[in-house]
Amino acid sequence: MTSITVLYFAAASTETGLTVEKVPIPTQGLALSSLPGLLVSRHPGTNLEQVFQTSQWSVDAEMVEDPTTVTLRGGEEVAVICPVSGG
């Protein structure tokens, strides 16, 4: 098994209690579109699923428009970009 680094910001960090987490993924890779389900299963009893519904993803500091087109192979840094409000 290999791993990725997940960065949590804003609501995602609040829900997980983390800012960074190493997450093992299968050696054959993992579709980015499957990552939310994996992360929700790692953090039961949170509202992480709802946070992901309005979040975007970044892989190695590049915003991802369509998570179904990206396969994580290991070693990537994946950020959960939550909407923020301010004034």
Automatic annotation (TrEMBL):
GO terms of molecular function: molybdopterin synthase activity; nucleotide binding
Where would you find this protein in the cell? Cytoplasm
Which superkingdom, per the lineage? Eukaryota
Q: Which GO terms describe its biological process?
A: Mo-molybdopterin cofactor biosynthetic process
Task: State the CDD domains in the record.
Answer: Ubl_MoaD
Pfam families of this UniProt entry? ThiS
**Which residues are modified to Glycyl adenylate?**
87
Q: How does it get modified after it is made?
A: C-terminal thiocarboxylation occurs in 2 steps, it is first acyl-adenylated (-COAMP) via the hesA/moeB/thiF part of UBA4, then thiocarboxylated (-COSH) via the rhodanese domain of UBA4.
Location (main, coarse): cytoplasm
Per the record, its GO cellular-component terms are: molybdopterin adenylyltransferase complex; molybdopterin synthase complex
PTM 1-thioglycine: list the residues: 87
Q: What InterPro entries does the database record attribute to this sequence?
A: Beta-grasp_dom_sf, MOCS2A, MOCS2A_euk, Mopterin_synth/thiamin_S_b, ThiS/MoaD-like
**Alphabetically ordered keywords of this record:** Cytoplasm, Molybdenum cofactor biosynthesis, Nucleotide-binding, Phosphoprotein
What pathway or pathways are given for this protein in its record?
Cofactor biosynthesis; molybdopterin biosynthesis
User: What family does the entry list?
Assistant: Belongs to the MoaD family. MOCS2A subfamily.
Task: Cite the record's note on assembly.
Answer: Heterotetramer; composed of 2 small (MOCS2A) and 2 large (MOCS2B) subunits.
Report the protein's function.
Acts as a sulfur carrier required for molybdopterin biosynthesis. Component of the molybdopterin synthase complex that catalyzes the conversion of precursor Z into molybdopterin by mediating the incorporation of 2 sulfur atoms into precursor Z to generate a dithiolene group. In the complex, serves as sulfur donor by being thiocarboxylated (-COSH) at its C-terminus by UBA4. After interaction with MOCS2B, the sulfur is then transferred to precursor Z to form molybdopterin.
Q: Which HAMAP family match?
A: MOCS2A (MF_03051)
What is this protein's name? Molybdopterin synthase sulfur carrier subunit
Give the species this sequence originates from.
Coprinopsis cinerea (strain Okayama-7 / 130 / ATCC MYA-4618 / FGSC 9003) (Inky cap fungus)
